[in-house]
Amino acid sequence: GDSVTQMEGPVTLSEEAFLTINCTYTATGYPSLFWYVQYPGEGLQLLLKATKADDKGSNKGFEATYRKETTSFHLEKGSVQVSDSAVYFCALSDFGTSYGKLTFGQGTILTVHP
Amino acid sequence: DTAVSQTPKYLVTQMGNDKSIKCEQNLGHDTMYWYKQDSKKFLKIMFSYNNKELIINETVPNRFSPKSPDKAHLNLHINSLELGDSAVYFCASSLQGGQGVEKLFFGSGTQLSVL
Predict the structure, then answer these.
(1) A106 in the Ramachandran plot: left (φ > 0), alpha (ψ -120 to 50) or beta?
(2) How far apart are CA B41 and CA B29, in angstroms?
(3) Choosing among A101, A103, A108, A111, which should be mutated to test the B contact, i.e. which has the most B CBs within 10 A?
(4) Which of B90, B92, B100 sits opposite A93 (nearest CB)?
(5) Residue A77 sits at the chain B interface (C-beta within 8 Å)
(6) What's the CA dihedral at B87, A20, A82, B38 to 10 degrees?
(7) Model confidence at B97: pLDDT above 80
(8) Which pLDDT tens digit goes with each residue over A1-60?
């Protein structure tokens, strides 16, 4: 079945540091890939997405590129802020095999210190 | 206006009790979901409804029974609560369901604690 694996957390960075959160996936069809973010005490919200190979999703300084050859969708940001502290989830939706179902990775907790 | 609202935000109860969590969305979406998030932040889908019809039921004990009176509401009723049911339950909705999920809108969660 479909699965998503994220790098182990938690991740702790200083403000303005470079961020990478690794994400790899397994899917039988042609998935769309997503990054969701969960701020403390809130529900998840979509951060960015990519629907086909080589697409780059970007939002709020974050970006991720859909790499079919390595089955990866790593999240990056050049300079993190304290306000980026949250839990980040990589997810996929496989049009061919799942009906309206997002499969999530285990989440990576990010803490950014001033 | 809150797009996806769920109540209550916190629910503390004893083992063996029956409880319900309500969810409403005002986005006009046809598909709604329940997800469970455990203490390690792992998220897993429980149910999905499309236009009041059950589409996904992911090996959830039958003590959990979703009810969708209309496409704007999806409630979750839990019978005979167990300690292992303690988690945060998220309701979500999306415009697209059958052809894959484009964007999920989540409620702010219900923290269920079973004592």
Answers:
(1) alpha
(2) 26
(3) A101
(4) B100
(5) no
(6) 0
(7) no
(8) 789 999 888 999 999 999 999 999 998 878 899 999 999 888 899 999 998 899 999 999
